[in-house]
Amino acid sequence: MDPQHIIEQFQRAIIQIATASGTGTGFYVKEFNLIVTNDHVVAGNAEVTIAGKAFDKAMSRVWYTDRKHDLAFLEAPPKIELPEIRLGQYEGMKDGDRVVAIGHPYGLNYTATQGVISKVDRIRDGLKFIQIDAAINPGNSGGPLVNDSGEVIGVNSFIIKGGDNLGFALPVSYLREALQMYIPNRGLASTRCFSCGYLVTQANIDSTKYCPSCGTEVTLPEIPEKEIETVGTAKTIEDILTDLGKNVRLAREGVNNWSVKEGSAKIKIVYNAENFFVAGDAYLCQMPSDPLKIKPLYQFLLQENYRISGMVLSCVKQNIVLSCIMYDMDMTKEYGAASFRNLFQQADYYDDFLKKEYGCVDRLEE
Fold it and tell me: Which of 150, 185, 271, 306 could form a disulfide with 256 if both were Cys (CB 3.0 to 4.6 A apart)?
């Protein structure tokens, strides 16, 4: 089994998922026209940001959550053709079988880690899990565990902290059961009671918060009338982005992280609360392929850094980056808006200028 071949087969069906509190992975199941991920990835949100190889960032509705099995189902992007990936048979797996875990660990998109099944039916909290030695890292959760035949046989779920490559995936048999339970209720916000396993929907919930079968308090993935707002510096940043015409909900990429586009430039904004600063990094084009143009390019970048104020041009590996930094105590809404506006405008300008004058090339994006 070649992990690269698995990535090529799956990458258009692998979905990046982001909320205000973190990021994760999901995968598209064409048979049911749904995106599958972990419940802990959606983190109680009724809408999340999704992105993939076949489409740009978009909002996706969370229709089903299952705390016990750590599953969630999301609405697939409309009018987008995504490939079919097959669900395999967990019952046919055995200890020692080779597997590949696919996801976006630590922001490294479309990463496959190869390993073997250490124990096919490890019992934890009354459920069977597939124990594997392929690393499951932050951002990898919710991605597919794939067998030698390129079929999904599990959903990557969790690791044991401090363990050496002790990863666990929920068997696909539980996923099939959950899908079959949800499909008759498609389009209804649903949650599976973690106590009795009953499917609670908008139509049968008792007193708006209790399972009608056992009385356990449950929460449906319903969009609140008023979105919970960020506070402090994060709120200031989001207010600025909104005033600059950016969609804040699409821009969120985890805690205190945002990403927007301006022309052909991609700008990443990070609030480092521990060190009290806000950084904006605009990733422009990449270094020219002609080596004779590299020295003149370096000279231009150094000269520009003497000329421009409040920003700096640098090279990060092959990428040319335009950056600005502000301390959170100094960042009023007016000052921050002026700084970000200038960064966005100059990023778009430099990206076009460097391509035209120095033969820089478009930045490769995953």
Answer: 271
| Residues 35 and 114 occupy one common structural domain | yes
- Structure tokens of 323? 């950056």
- Which residues are known to be catalytic? 40, 70, 141
Strands 152-159 and 167-171: antiparallel
The DSSP bridge pattern shows strands 277-286 and 319-327 to be: antiparallel
Residues 169, 246, single domain; the answer is no
Joined tokens for residue 2: 């070649």
- pTM summary value: 0.81
- DSSP for 145-165, written as a single string: EE-TTS-EEEEEEEE-TT-SS
Last residue of a domain, one of 173, 203, 223: 223
Range of the domain at 29: 1-223
Contact 132, 116 (CB under 8 A): yes
Two structure tokens written together for 229: 């707002």
CA distance readout (Å), 256 to 277, 325, 327: 11, 15, 14
**Rounded mean pLDDT of the chain?**
89
Residues 257-267 pLDDT 10s = 999 988 878 89
Name the stretches of the chain with pLDDT < 70: 1-3, 104-110, 135-139, 160-165, 225-228, 364-366
